[in-house]
Specification:
The chain is an alpha+beta fold and about 450 residues long. About 40% of the residues lie in helices and about 20% in strands.
């Protein structure tokens, strides 16, 4: 970057990544031990012990200096012994280099960066999945020759701290029989690596060790990739299967007449095929169960929607009829004629029709059109007093209505019109006249 912060050493500007230790990327005074030249790397080996660094930074800084010194072909024996006593394969449970960031697209694995390795370290949780150390890539159960306790990143290299390493396997590894390693990583949906699955050693057969723990993988459908990484590349024309390598190891160790118990490539294909078939059956069964449950829920939902829709339609029809009854535009005869059923059918339609012109133009549903038409008619149901028949007749000339009978008596007594007598009696005895009791159909 053109504007990158630099610190000048021996007249040369250096960026932060060219120093073994950087306390604060924004403060060049905290940058120490430059590694840009052979001479500076050699000086870093000598000066590391005299540099006042935080205790948490000493390990990563020492590993960075040692890695750079190896690139410069400098002797790091004493440096490692004094400052990295637990970092190499001579330790019982060593830190090992298991992978290096780089471009693996020619192997179909993609580009893997330092940021990807940092993500793998952050996500590694042995309590959830403890990555095993194996011989070859296990697809089902294989012996575990050790376990990965912790992960760290040194520059572009992924380091793994082992534990419970089998002694005989460790001796075989120190003897140089396992110079090529391969790391397997889980991937997310976008294809990025997320966590370590296992570390596999290739290129030699395992020692015959009894009582080793089996590795039982349950990946829960997660995708993973395997990337080879090691000090030595395979010799051209010398590609061997795992089964052939096992046979070669025992032939070398015990003589050519010894035939170890092993399995063929066909056996591997058979085992793998059977495992895949079983997994596919379980997956298919789960899919069928989910499809059945989905169909049931869909049917219930559809039925519920129908009930709700039917209730809404009925409510619209009832409200429309009630609106006309309140306005005095509905007769009981309408119900007998089936007008209510017509309202029910019209309420099912949510389409609209337009009538009128200009500002008076309206857009209404078919039901609303009929309601507006009926509302425009003259009032059908009369209002005013309605007189109820008496529970019993009064005398032989009784009309059967107390108000009518009383009005006739008053008319005769005062010699006034029947209407005047009716008003006087109604005013004096309002209980005999109940206004608003008119019902449609009484005419």
């Amino acid at each position: 970057m053109a504007n990158a912060l630099t610190k000048t050493v021996d007249g040369k500007p250096l960026t932060a990544d060219q120093f073994a230790y950087v306390g604060d990327p924004k403060n060049i005074e905290s940058w120490h031990l430059p590694l840009d030249t052979h001479q500076h790397v050699n000086s870093a080996l000598d000066m590391f012990a005299h540099t006042d660094l935080p205790s948490s930074a000493k390990g990563p800084t020492a590993r960075k200096i040692a890695a750079k010194a190896k690139e410069e072909n400098l002797d790091t024996t004493d440096f490692v012994k004094n400052h990295l006593p637990q970092t190499f394969a001579e330790a019982a449970s060593p830190w090992i280099e298991v992978f290096r960031a780089g471009d693996y697209r020619d192997k179909g694995k993609g580009l893997i960066t330092r940021a990807d390795l940092d993500r793998v370290v952050r996500n590694y949780d042995p309590t959830y999945h403890e990555a095993p150390v194996t011989i070859g890539h296990p697809s089902n159960d294989k012996p575990a020759f050790g376990w990965i306790e912790r992960l760290a990143v040194d520059g572009d290299t992924l380091l793994a701290k082992e534990k419970q390493v089998d002694p005989q396997f460790h001796e075989a590894r120190k003897a140089g029989r396992y110079k090529k390693r391969s790391a397997a990583f889980y991937q997310d949906a976008s294809g990025q690596i997320t966590s370590l699955r296992h570390v596999a050693y290739l290129g030699a057969a395992p020692p015959e060790v009894k009582g080793l723990q089996d590795v039982a993988f349950d990946d829960h459908g997660l995708e993973f990739i395997e990337v080879d990484f090691g000090e030595d590349e395979p010799v051209a024309g010398e590609t061997k299967t795992v089964a052939e390598q096992i046979k070669a190891f025992f032939a070398e160790a015990f003589g050519s007449n010894v035939q170890p118990k092993t399995f063929s490539e066909d056996d591997l294909k058979s085992i793998t095929g059977e495992a895949l078939a079983n997994a596919a059956k379980a997956f298919d069964a789960k899919v069928i169960a989910l499809q059945s449950e989905l169909a049931t829920q869909t049917a219930k939902f559809t039925e519920r929607e129908k009930l709700i829709a039917g209730g809404e339609v009925k409510q619209r029809a009832v409200e429309a009829a009630a609106r006309l009854k309140t306005a005095g535009k509905w007769l009981p005869a309408f119900d007998k004629m089936g007008l209510g059923l017509v309202f029910d059918e019209l309420a099912k339609s949510t389409a609209t029709v337009e009538f009128g012109e200009g500002d008076a133009k309206k857009s209404v549903t078919p039901l609303e059109t009929l309601v507006l038409f009926l509302e425009g008619l003259p009032k059908i149901v009369p209002s005013g007093r309605v007189f109820e028949a008496a529970a019993h007749a009064r005398g032989g000339n009784s009309s059967g209505d107390p108000l009518t009978d009383a009005a006739r008596v008053r008319q005769k007594e005062k010699k006034i019109t029947f209407s005047e007598a009716l008003d006087e009696v109604a005013a004096e005895q309002p209980e005999l006249a109940v206004a608003g009791r008119t019902t449609a159909g009484s005419i």
